[in-house]
Amino acid sequence: MRHLVCVLLLLSGQAFAQAPAPLYAASFDESTDRWTPLEAGVALPTVQSEMSQSGAALRHDYSTPTPALAGSIARLYPGDLTGARSIDFWCRTSAEAILGLAVQEQGGGRYISMFYSPANRWQHVEMSVDRLRLADDTNDDNNTLDWDQVVAVALIDVSVALPFRGPVAGDRSLFVDEFRILTTEAPTAYATGEQLPYVLDDFQADYTTWLPLLGSLEVDSTVGELVWTYGPPEATPALGAIVLMTGNLPAADSGHLVLTFRSARATQFIVSLQEENRQPEGERGFNAVVQAVGGPEPQTVALSLADFRLEDKLVGVQDGPLRLDRVNRLTILDLSLLAGQVQADNTVHLQEVLLTP
After folding, report:
1. Range of the domain at 35
2. Cα 238 from Cα 214, distance rounded (Å)
3. Residue 1 located in a structural domain
4. Who is most buried in 71, 203, 260, 331, counting CB within 10 A?
5. What is the pLDDT of residues 45-54, one digit of tens each?
6. For the whole model, what pTM was predicted?
């Protein structure tokens, strides 16, 4: 779908137009451009490194597990970013990590997205601004990221504060290169003009905002697949799941969540849409069950949003319909592992995730 748009742009000649200048750009070839660690009392400065994607790169060394802000770096007061549509950069971590990209307003909210970073692999992050969402622990009067009021842009090793697969300990390094904030749309944007269908993911990008709670993830952008491989956990029951952190989704006119995937073995998946933890309603989850037939052929499942059911523990306590505008996580969970049924290894190829009428 997105490749077709690119072809049409080429045919129309628009692709040959000169690209607008970045609102902010740091190559790190000559300096660290005033990026700094957020951890109080850190003696290690951010430094340039020869281990880069191009030229020199920003390098931040830190130790885990505490304090929580270890592995957090920011560029304070990056200038007027009015009109920003995407954030584009290269990054690499010395260990598997979940990284957060955060944008902080002056006296306002903090907007964040998360993505998976495999160990020792440079990846190109093309973050559309519609992937950024107001963090649960902050408030914003207009619930809108005002780019002219931005006072900081930060990268955070979230897995230090929130270990997603057990305790994190030891020395780590975070590398960043060619960081730019642009007025042009990223290929990862949900939709053109906020019209349905919303492409939550078609896996054409070099990075992924899916987070693995068990097993390993690999993006194969050449064929447009997220490959999730997992096996029986050391202890059961276990949470064998992958989680997509979403931006703001369109509540109006959305009727179905459509998944195209193939699973090496037959199993049942719980697909969960989880609302943000914001008062007074609090956090809620809505679930649907998908039967994976198993085998080499992909299957497409269209789940009616009306058929998602409130978690049993919340029935009679936090009743009410699913509010798609408050959903900030999509989880796919292997029910057999949750039930403690030890199974053979499995590989799931996720090919497309859409919101449709």
Report:
1. 19-182
2. 8
3. no
4. 71
5. 778 887 777 7
6. 0.88
